[in-house]
Amino acid sequence: MALANGSELADDALQGIVRHQLELMVTPTLRWEGDLWSGIFMALAIHVPEAMGRHGERGGEEAEQDSEEDEAVWHSELTLSLPRLGTLGVNFYLKGTSLNLTLECDDESSVAALRTESHDLEARLGRCGLADVKVSIMPKRDASEGMEP
């Protein structure tokens, strides 16, 4: 009886792993959540570009011809809980050497502080080899914002 009960637990655990792997095949996203340092929480989601998935589906010459046309766009989302700035949401869109970075913060004073340093951030990212860097800093939008009544 103990053996049968143990195999049922193994089957349940295996079923969860298989379900997770199938979900990753459909929507390939890498997620991680945890403490970076004591008191600093981070949630990270990296979305695999659609173009990369399509390259695997096509063969040979056709994939090579289209590779220049539809360059992969990497999209990542990051949420940080920082002691002085509060909760900070970051969205990255990277295509080649172009980066579009949006930072959203709950606190207006944190938004103002980030805006004063945004040009320095753009310059630093440019020195890392990025040709086109756009940094947008705004207050965090409510979930209800943008919905039609």
Characteristic terms for this protein:
6-stranded mixed beta sheet, 149 residues, single chain
Provide a descriptive summary of the structure in words.
With 149 residues, this protein is of the alpha+beta class. It has 4 helices and 6 strands. A 6-stranded mixed sheet has the order 1-2-3-4-5-6, covered by helices on one side. Strand 4 (86-95) and strand 5 (98-105) form a beta hairpin. The radius of gyration is 21 Å and the shape is flat. The N and C termini lie far apart (58 Å).
Give a short account of the largest sheet. Answer: 6 strands, mixed
Backbone CA Rg: 21 Å
Q: Spatial order of the strands in the main sheet?
A: 1-2-3-4-5-6
Structural class: alpha+beta
Number of helices: 4
User: What is the mean predicted local confidence, pLDDT?
Assistant: 80
Fraction in beta strands: 35-45%
Strand tally: 6
Q: What overall geometry do the principal axes of the alpha carbons give?
A: flat
Question: Please, what is the oligomeric state?
Answer: single chain
Distance between the termini: 58 Å
